[in-house]
Amino acid sequence: MTTVPATLPVRDNYRDSSFYIRKTLTLADAALGVKIGAVAQGTFIDSIKAYCTTVFNAGTTNGISIGTTQGGTDIAAGGTVSGTNLLAATLGIQNLTAAPGLGLAVTAGSPTGASGGFDIWVKYLQTGTAATTGSMTIVIGLISNNDL
């Protein structure tokens, strides 16, 4: 059974400043994917950072994907390349500098989210022996579209 989360309002900062979406993803809420926010069309995804406090310890692979759909990977896929993917089995700070969804790559098109913007989802991807631990705080830095 698929759980449909509540529609989240589009985050849009009407001032000339940056803002962010922050979520601590734990093993308990990671498997199905979690909607962590929604952004307006044209929002610039400035940065994706994470801090892993407890490794996700699946037997073979441990990845975190970020996308505009449940289980989506259009912002960041759940791979194993440092700087491009969130490495769920690596403690400490991570800074994604080459994720495919940075900039306007995802938000320049037609809105696909439930509230007229783009929903943002995170999901833990694992293979091999099932993980028993895991916690990672994810921060997505955003800049509103204020082009006149």
Explain the overall architecture.
The protein has one domain (26-143). It is globular and about 45 Å long. The strands form two sheets. It has a four-stranded antiparallel beta sheet with strand order 1-8-3-6. A four-stranded antiparallel beta sheet has the order 2-7-4-5. Helices cover 3% and strands 40% of the residues. The chain contains one helix and eight strands. The longest helix is centred in the N-terminal third of the chain and has 4 residues, at 27-30. The chain has 148 residues and is mainly β. The relative contact order is 0.35.
Percent helix among the residues?
under 10%
Strand order of the largest sheet: 1-8-3-6
The strand count comes to 8
How would you sum up the global shape? globular
Q: Which oligomeric form is depicted?
A: single chain
Question: Ranges with pLDDT <50 over ≥5 residues?
Answer: none
What is the rounded Rg?
15 Å
Cα distance spanning the termini: 44 Å
| Count of helical regions | 1
What about the largest sheet?
A: 4 strands, antiparallel
SSE order: EHEEEEEEE
- The pLDDT mean sits at 88
The amount of beta strand, in percent, is 35-45%
How many structurally independent domains? 1
Structural class: mainly beta
